[in-house]
Structures are given as structure tokens and as C-alpha cells.
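Q: C-alpha cells for this one, please.
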Amino acid sequence: MEIDSEDKTLEEELDDEDNNNNDNGDQLPNPKLQNPKLRSDSDSDSDSDSDSEDESQQNLELKTLETELSGNPANYDSHAQYIKLLRKMGEIDKLKQAREAMNNVFPLSPDMWRDWAKDEASISGPEGFAGVEKIYDRGVFDYLSVSLWCDYLNYIQEHDPSVRECSPDGISKAQNLFERALTAAGLHVAEGNKIWELYREFEQAVLHTIDENDIKAKELQVQRIRNIFHRQLSVPLVNLRSTLLAYKAWEVEQGIDLDAKSSEVDGLSSHLASAYQKAMEAYNARAPHEEQISMQNISDTEKIQNFMNYLKFEKSVGDPARVQVLYERAMLTFLYQVIYGLIILAIWTGL
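A: Here is the predicted structure, written as C-alpha cells:
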């Protein structure tokens, strides 16, 4: 059983060859493609030989990696290659053991946690929900990853019956998870808005489930969505102006008289207008740093220096939560570097 492979099957390769021949009118048709009987015996033998060779090669690679890990369980690359090979071969039991073994020594990357969760979900089906949930929960603990948090939140909404059906317990569970996500990643300047938007979408979906005659419950839910908008608009995040426009359009839907096409603060309460303006100023102060740490095609030394400059700025502002988020972003950026530990140490000692 192969969990995930991009290798072409023999049939697909033959189809490609057929298409190439059809594109070239000077070549004679391949008789093996024209007559399945002519290719059945020889191709079957060829397929069997090829599969056997591939399996032998994979088993050899597997034993080599197992020997390397037995002698040096702290070899990150060997762990990663071993997991990749087991996943390709569909060795489910060994794969789970390999992931646990690696996680006993190293934090797994967000992509590794994502693959693990998806594999578990495909293997176990609905009955394995609790196991997949636990994998996501462990994953978001290892590293700050907005994309992994979003996958986790989406998985819970789609596969937890209590959340999907918007039962009181399900709503409470989802809200607690969203708040955890905001605490962990809601200050991420470049990506934190994704979690805020998912939160609003969830609460909007809850609003649609409330009986039209239950005026009080609807009013409370509308206020809850409004509060989430207000909280987001007070945080320096990318696309703040778009969020303001979305908020104004939403308020118009609630019957509030606002210019939904204006990105200015006209019509907002003085408290919200002030919070938004401060957030915009804070974002504009961070935008050059965000651009620098996002630069491609520069040396690792320059990347480290850009993070150090940004961290110095955040430390001067004096918000420990922002310093922590940026530090975790640096860890993720340099995750695959051989001098990973030295890079993080250099960042901190350089402050």
C-alpha cells in the first residue's frame, strides 16, 4: 500500500508514449500500443522485474537508514529520509514508529505533522478522529505555524460532529481552540489575519443556525462577531484596510449606517478609530522589517541579520509576546539549516 506517490504507472507512461507518437506523423505506430495481446506477456514480465528491482532497492535503502539511526539516533536527515521512504512504501506501522522516534529527539516540521495527520485521517477514517486531533495538537505545540493551525481548525470544523452541528458543547470547543490559535499566532504580522478570518467565518456560520425568532441570541452572536472584528482591527496585521472595509460592509448588513466603500475611520466609534489608527501605525513601522525577512535570493548571513534587526526593534517596543512570535518565526525559517541551533543562539545573543 503506497500512501502518497507521484510516480507514473506503466499505463500512464504508455499513454504518454502514444500521445507523443500521435503528435509525430512520420513515426510508425507502436504495434505494442495497437495490440494489447502483443504486449501482455512481455510487459507483464518487465513490470514484475521492475517492481522487484524497485522493492529490493527500497529495502536496501531502508536497512541502511535503520543502521544509521541505530548508531546515531540524533541524525536529523536520516530520520527525515527514513520517514519519507516508509511513507512511499506504505509501511504504516513502521512509519508511525519512525515518526514517534524522531519526535522523541527533534520537533517535527509543520509539513511532517501535516503529512502525519493526513495519513492518519486517510487510514483510520471517521473512527480515528481523536487520533488525528491529537496529532494536530502536538504539531502546533512544536512550532509556530499559521498554516498548520488553519489546517487544525478546518479539520475540527469539518470532522468533529459536535462542532459541525453547532451544538453548545461543539461551539464552546471550537471557540476555545480559536482563542488558543490567536494566542499562539494571532500576532503574526504577515499571516495572523488568516486565523482571525477563520474565526469570524465560524461565528458567522453559528449566527446562521440561530432561530430567527430568538432575537436575544442573535443579538449576542452579532455582538460576538463585532468584538472579533474590533479585536482584529486593533492588531498590526497585513491587509488591515481590507479588514476595515469588510467590517464596514458587515455592519451595513446589520443595519448600521456606514460608508462601506471608504477605508477611512469616518463613522466608527472614537475608541475603535483610535485603536485602528494605532494598529496601522504599528504595522507601517514593521512593514520594512517584514519585507526584509521575506527577501529571497540572499545569503543566510543576511537573513539572520534581518531577523536580528527586527528582533531588536520588537525588543525596543517592549512587548514580550511579539518578541516570542518573531523568535518562533526565525526558528521555522532556519529549520532545515545545519547550523540551526547556532543561528537561533546568534539571534538571541545579538540582541
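A few notes: DSSP finds 17 helices and no strands in the chain. Confidence is low (pLDDT under 50) at residues 1-40.
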